[in-house]
Amino acid sequence: MATSRIDRRSLPAGARIDRWAAPDGWEHRTFDWPAEGPARGSILFQGGRGDIFEKYLESFAHWHAAGWNVTSFDWRGQGGSGRLTPAKNCGHIDDYADYVDDLRHFWSHWVKANPGPHVAMGHSMGGHLVLRGLVEGVIAPDVAVLVAPMLGFKPGIFGRFAERAARFLGGLGNPARPAWKGNEKPYTTETRASLLTHDPDRYADEIWWQTHDPSILTGPPSWRWVIEGFRSMRELAADPRLAQMRVPVLMLIAEYDGLIDGKAALVLAPSLPDLHLVTFGKESAHEILREADPVRDRALGEIDAFLAKRAPQA
């Protein structure tokens, strides 16, 4: 499969950035790229913690070229969707249910405005939240794609006591304060770049966008984000509705993911009744869709085949 070649550092022709207000008035930054001509269908793609949709323009271009409408929005409290704490660039949330509510309300109007089949995609935290939305019944796509879904944190130095340690440390001060400094992963000598992708040029794209517009840069998470993340993942893994969720799911997992625990996704996967699982080895870091061409092209090929089979054009 030929790799998409676009200018990854400019907004593509025909795409637009806008604002969407949740029912409580909170404004989210949105991206929308309608298909040229009759649409093959519509994709809502949601990124991970601290993500911006500009990081995925290359993948969006691939799907857009195949005739899909492509939409995304920055999650509340990160990217271009404002901050929930006065701490500079800190990604904070009081409760992951707030994310799910935003997804619920955005989906309800988006699905009416865009033709099917409707596809929900999520990377990392976005994958976690899309799966929660599916299990809780707040979204009902024709199919879903979860890319390196955040279903477990790396245990780190606290091992199986990590959640308890987060609650203790977060409680020592304002839990809206940053949980650590610059890196994506605390207590590590690995660079942020090596945790995310083996492709230095694609990694540099994110830095370019953040330098071009510093307002979209999100730094470390708050302690509350970490604490609520542990709770949300633990409760989702134990949710009996996983086995009742009938939406077909494609799950792409990087088994040697250095940022999140890919093994947790492998443990949860058998709970889903209609799942196609694809794994990557040491060749892939966390950002599968922004990896070197062999990994990225394989991932896009798997997604294309899944959509062709499970979400055929009406």
UniProtKB/TrEMBL annotation:
Gene3D superfamilies: alpha/beta hydrolase. Residues 38-293 form the Serine aminopeptidase S33 domain. Pfam families: Hydrolase_4. It comes from the Bacteria. One of its GO terms (molecular function) is hydrolase activity. Keywords: Hydrolase. InterPro entries: AB_hydrolase_fold, Hydrolase_4, MAG_DAG_Lipase. This is Alpha/beta hydrolase. The lineage of its organism: Bacteria, Pseudomonadati, Pseudomonadota, Alphaproteobacteria, Sphingomonadales.
